[in-house]
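Re: export button greyed out
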Amino acid sequence: MGVTIYDVAKIAGVGLGTVSRVLNNSDHISPETRKKVLDAIEKLNYKPHAFARGLAKQKTNILSIIVPFFTGYFYIELLKGIQKPITKFEYDLVLYNVEKNNRLNSVLDKVLNGKLVDGVILISMSLSDEYAIEFNRQNLPIVLVDSYHPGVDSFFIENKKGAYIATKHLIDLGHKRVGMIDAQLKSTPAKIRLEGYKAALKDRGITFDSKYLVISDSDEKSDGFSREAGYSAMKRLLMLGEDRPTAVFISSDIQAVGAMKAIREEKLTIPDDIAIIGFDDIEFSEAIGLSTMRQPMFEMGEMAVDILLKRISGQISSLFHKKYIPELIIRETC
Amino acid sequence: MGVTIYDVAKIAGVGLGTVSRVLNNSDHISPETRKKVLDAIEKLNYKPHAFARGLAKQKTNILSIIVPFFTGYFYIELLKGIQKPITKFEYDLVLYNVEKNNRLNSVLDKVLNGKLVDGVILISMSLSDEYAIEFNRQNLPIVLVDSYHPGVDSFFIENKKGAYIATKHLIDLGHKRVGMIDAQLKSTPAKIRLEGYKAALKDRGITFDSKYLVISDSDEKSDGFSREAGYSAMKRLLMLGEDRPTAVFISSDIQAVGAMKAIREEKLTIPDDIAIIGFDDIEFSEAIGLSTMRQPMFEMGEMAVDILLKRISGQISSLFHKKYIPELIIRETC
DNA sequence: TATATATCTGGAAGGGCTTCCAATAAAATA
DNA sequence: TATTTTATTGGAAGCCCTTCCAGATATATA
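Workaround output, generated via the alternate export path:
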């Protein structure tokens, strides 16, 4: 069934080492020999056996990417960014979806010891010190995206600054009662965005009032970054009646979508009764006019692969830490 | 660096064949021997080398999924559905993203000859007869999702019926001028949905009027299934002035989102001035109250993997063709 | 007790490739 | 022309497993 390098060698009338050499573009091959081999390959429609090659080379040309639940556009954009260079450099991409945090360890173990991949991209999840050490020890490159660890390459958003900018903008618009809808604080971005929110209040001389902070409920798959969670969080804020905030910074656009629905259900208008700024700039935000903090997802994905490939090929040695500052996109909700 | 089966054999004081047998749960292993081996594995933290195993077994435990540009939620939902059984059965998933149609062939070639994967899932793209034959000849299972070929397992939506139901509903609501915004007809679903639209008109005694049909522009990555394309298509429909349709069936929700924006910009109201029904029921449709035809994406993904795995293990032999009829979800736009 | 049968185990062969070493041929130099 | 040097080439060894065959041991049967 499968045509192997031996068949090619026989047809071309050369040794198998020679075939392998033209396959790998090694030098020291005479043009005539190369042509003979190429012709034979063409004739037999030969394609190298990926696993055999991987075994011999100790290199698989596969990268893995670990994402938490495919929740929305954030990851899609990232994936698009990641795909681009991967395809170009003839790598394959294996996808691990971690729905529950405890599964992360088993995926990391698999990736570490299975010798299936040449490198890994870990998205939006934090890496424990033990694993960071283990990756370094095994010399398996890993890069973090939307997460940070001092010991490995990381690309991350300045969440604190982003939240700060959004909150400050709301305050500077004249709002006195500026609330926040955040996700579960066990999510690092959520925790840090809260810090930014508080910092902005403080800088503007507003004391933090816990009744204006609502933490979205988590469900089995989202840590509170969901439409439903945003909806019910806003409902809770609206229960404050006349004392409700006149502006709300929301920790993700997807929650903001739910929150907007809740506001409309109360027959309140946006931004007149309540102004809103979200976070992420997912594709739908533009369609619904949602003001938000844009994260350069595509770019981060692209850069992450770039660094990962360089790391794999040993082209860089020093640690690479890059931070992105989210950009305020003003639309119609504030 | 890497601990191999030889190390385990040595530590356990057994032959390597024995180690392999306990790894693969073969029978004819005495409980004591098994324990010794298991202990050694534990002690060394041994994990089998995926590529070596794949080479020896001629089976990789990897499935590949080929998707056209990650455009939106349709594919996310599908991916979620696919992930579930894949994880459970310890397969890995490699993702190929086909942005341009001509790249499909090169991906298929790679998948066919590279021996990297045990099976493939092809989404929303049609398979040519030549490739269908080649897959069968090479005995590499492939299943189509949201697409159809008589020679391979297929899961598909009854697009014609779906479009028919949507259009008929609009007509039965009393609308006389029912338009359609479709995507490029080179996309099979788009072509077939148009047929359903026409069939409904005909059944209700309305003659098809080409000025009420607008084909969305395609951009480099979407065949017209995009927000921008829906927006400008609706703009064109609105240029008809008073003669414009009072109801429009739109071939995807994402286009409908753009179309709704166009309508609102003209200060027209939905559904009073123009009623709308989309197609897909993406996550945002509920948030914006869009009536639509729901496709069971998650379920299709799940079933596709199920069948694929059964096919790989030889548990089924006859061809599997399953069609899903989309369900009309009535919300606020009609 | 001798023999047949069932159970368990070791290890060679093989899966398809790369890489290295040695060998040969061709070209350059003395 | 004889001797180096250089450019090519063939093929064995090795990457890490699984599988099959044969041998060893234990158990059942005559």
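Chain A has three domains: 5-48, 60-157+297-324, 159-294. The button fix ships in the next patch.
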